[in-house]
Design a protein that fits this description.
The chain is an alpha/beta fold. The protein has ten helices and six strands. The protein has a six-stranded parallel β-sheet, sandwiched between helices. Strand 1, helix 1 and strand 2 form a beta-alpha-beta unit. The model has no long low-confidence stretch (mean pLDDT 87).
Length: 210
């Protein structure tokens, strides 16, 4: 079975180049193309591709919004971003929108083919510049994450990382157990975590108290 690919880009030269190369791949079939996000969504509904190679900046509807709608309405269709932009304002929204891969247009043709094949297996593949952006973003989130907690909440979380019970924390901080529980509820809400163990592991993993 060949991998059915839909090409989406507002530049005809790019579309021709992609078609020229991908048609040389015995296990890939180009089933159509589109020049904006609105057209892409219509083509997805009509042609049922396995993979969509999606540009980011296009008229009428950009690739990020199109990716979001395709991911929500056609979950079996995998979107790979193929663009010239590796800035954070392009990368992060695209990944959040549901893109399974993100490559730049200077990618080696063979790498692009491998990205398509990997996506079919459900595997993510990112250009090195994109990977660097994601790592940088996650590092900054971890570094600034503790700032969302009040000084007292940080104290409570620190004692949780030491494995202390609510009773022990209350005694240590000279407050009631009820107050400790209130702080923990607030901590979990701000960190969007389910329990104190997750909070402790997250804090330790990100070296919040080193």
């Amino acid at each position: 079975m060949k991998i059915k690919v839909l090409l989406v880009d507002d530049h005809l030269v790019v579309l021709r180049g992609l078609r020229f190369f991908l048609q040389t791949q015995s296990d890939i079939e180009i089933i159509g193309q589109a020049q904006n996000g609105i057209e892409a969504i219509k083509k997805v509904e009509e042609l049922k591709p396995d993979i969509v190679l999606m540009d980011v900046q296009m008229p009428k509807m950009d690739g990020i919004e199109a990716t979001k709608q395709i991911s929500e309405n056609y979950p079996d269709v995998k979107v790979i971003i193929l663009t010239s932009f590796s800035d954070r304002d392009s990368v992060l929204p695209a990944i959040k929108a549901g893109a399974l891969g993100y490559q730049l247009k200077d990618v080696e043709p063979d790498v692009l083919a491998e990205t398509i094949k990997a996506a079919m297996e459900g595997n993510r593949t990112f250009h090195q510049q994109v990977t660097n952006q994601l790592i940088s973003h996650m590092t900054q989130e971890a570094e600034t994450g503790i700032q969302i907690l009040t000084p007292r909440e940080r104290e409570v979380l620190y004692h949780i990382t030491l494995g202390q019970s609510n009773k022990e924390i209350a005694a240590e901080l000279h407050v009631t157990e009820k107050t400790v529980k209130t702080h923990i509820t607030s901590i979990l809400g701000k960190m969007q975590l389910q329990d104190r163990t997750q909070a402790a592991l997250f804090a330790i993993k990100n070296n919040w108290f080193d």
